[in-house]
Specification:
The protein is an alpha+beta fold and 226 residues long. A hairpin with a 4-residue loop joins strand 1 and strand 2. The protein is elongated and about 125 Å long.
């Protein structure tokens, strides 16, 4: 029996043996990206597209309507009382006349809130809320805030010295500011609300009952600040 097995030369005549399974490892490509990377690229493309669309819309709007900045001027002022007591109480009587010019041909403006404030040496001493209104195309409107009363103000040594010097000259540095809440109207479309601030730096002589501004021929232009 052993001789027969040797004669077979180690050949196997049993059931066939399936070949060994080979495991193939597929290496990732160096230029590929994961889900997170693809998502970031997708979001980046969306942002770039949105910026381009908004930029084009703004450009088209400007080319069609050519918006111009509304102009604020102080035309007259009356200061009949401006006295600082020993306990830093400011007594005042100030009336201001202003013009508001909308030079745009296709843009109207809703002034939903107009708050006029008066300042001396960065200290607010009076506030008045003016009547809201709508301003049409290429229109000039008028504002007339009046500040009367007395108010405690926190003035230091330097500010009191400045006040005394201006009392001697009879000309006071007073700032009048408008805090606005406005909307623009283009055709039937109304924009959201904006809150600009208008600053008017004035040199006001005391007892200028006839209306006048020191150092300026006619009017004082006010500045915008968003």
């Amino acid at each position: 029996m052993a001789e027969k097995q040797a004669h077979l030369n180690g050949a196997y005549y049993g059931p066939s043996i399936p070949p060994a399974t080979r495991n193939y490892h597929r290496h990732g490509r160096g230029s590929g990206c994961g889900c997170g990377c693809c998502l970031l690229k997708f979001l980046f493309n969306i942002i770039i597209t949105a910026v381009v669309i908004i930029g084009l819309a703004v450009l088209i709007f400007w080319l069609i309507f050519r918006p111009n900045r509304v102009k604020f001027h102080v035309t007259d002022v009356s200061l009949t009382e401006f006295n600082l007591t020993t306990n830093n109480t400011l007594q005042y009587n100030l009336a201001v006349s202003m013009t508001v010019r909308n030079p745009n041909r296709r843009i109207g403006i809703y002034y939903d809130r107009i708050e006029a404030r008066a300042y001396y040496e960065d200290q607010r001493f009076a506030t008045q809320t003016l009547t809201p209104f709508y301003q049409g195309h290429k229109n000039t409107s008028f504002l007339n805030p009046v500040f009367t009363g007395q108010q405690f103000v926190m003035l230091g040594t330097d500010e009191i010295s400045q006040f005394n010097g201006e009392s001697t000259s009879g000309i006071y540095s007073i700032d009048v500011k408008l805090y606005l809440r406005i909307r623009f109207k283009v055709g039937r479309i109304k924009t959201g609300r904006f809150k600009p601030k208008i600053s008017c730096d004035l040199k006001v002589p005391l007892n200028s009952a006839n209306g006048g501004l020191a150092g300026t021929p006619d009017t004082t232009r006010c500045d915008w600040d968003f």
